Description:
CATH superfamily of the largest domain: SPOUT methyltransferase, trefoil knot domain
Shape: elongated
CATH architecture of the largest domain: 3-Layer(aba) Sandwich
CATH topology of the largest domain: Alpha/beta knot
Number of strands: 11
Number of domains: 2
Number of helices: 11
Largest sheet: 7 strands, parallel
Low-confidence stretches: none
Amino acid sequence: xxxxxxxxxxxxxxxxxxxxxxxxxxxxxxxxxxxxxxxxxxxxxxxxxxxxxxxxxxxxxxxxxxxxxxxxxxxxxxxxxxxxxxxxxxxxxxxxxxxxxxxxxxxxxxxxxxxxxxxxxxxxxxxxxxxxxxxxxxxxxxxxxxxxxxxxxxxxxxxxxxxxxxxxxxxxxxxxxxxxxxxxxxxxxxxxxxxxxxxxxxxxxxxxxxxxxxxxxxxxxxxxxxxxxxxxxxxxxxxxxxxxxxxxxxxxxxxxxxxx
Length: 260
């Protein structure tokens, strides 16, 4: 059993709480049986796994540990104190895996791209990624000023979206290249077109700006038009993750209606 915080693997996991380390080491950590199951289902090979004694006999954990053993993944029993020091949650789930940064290839031709611009709150980005995966977005581009997608709170909120979605942190010139040939719509509280009146069946990109200051000048300059979600009188704006979900599922609704 690993009981020391000076253990090299423990020190690595704790260091992965920092963005610089995640990108230097090209890995991040996930917690809980659900996320680990999602990763294994996508044939992602963890570098190693930590688990606690209380978790070792859990019905959710036992089959995962068996799969990991068959794949030759090193699994280490750790003390509750070590797990608490490594975990990003108040109540650690007792199962933690270090996995490589997601490498989902972008589509050759995108029909639905989501651009996230200056969204800085990890929980919001995680929820946006989860909605993007569920609604059929085929790539997500993260503009400068957006929180790191591998931040532990983003990963937790994404609920496995990282293993399905192509994610790219890019400069605006790089984003411009990816958006060629797409209708580009910007979500805005004062947009000039209701979101239900847009033809979302065309190849498109949707830009979602941060809550605090809205979209960046680069995003505003690139948008072909601005869309808005109507709200009750006196309400200024929606939470950015909620707004993204409303818009993304309207896109999905229109496209599914055509298919049927």
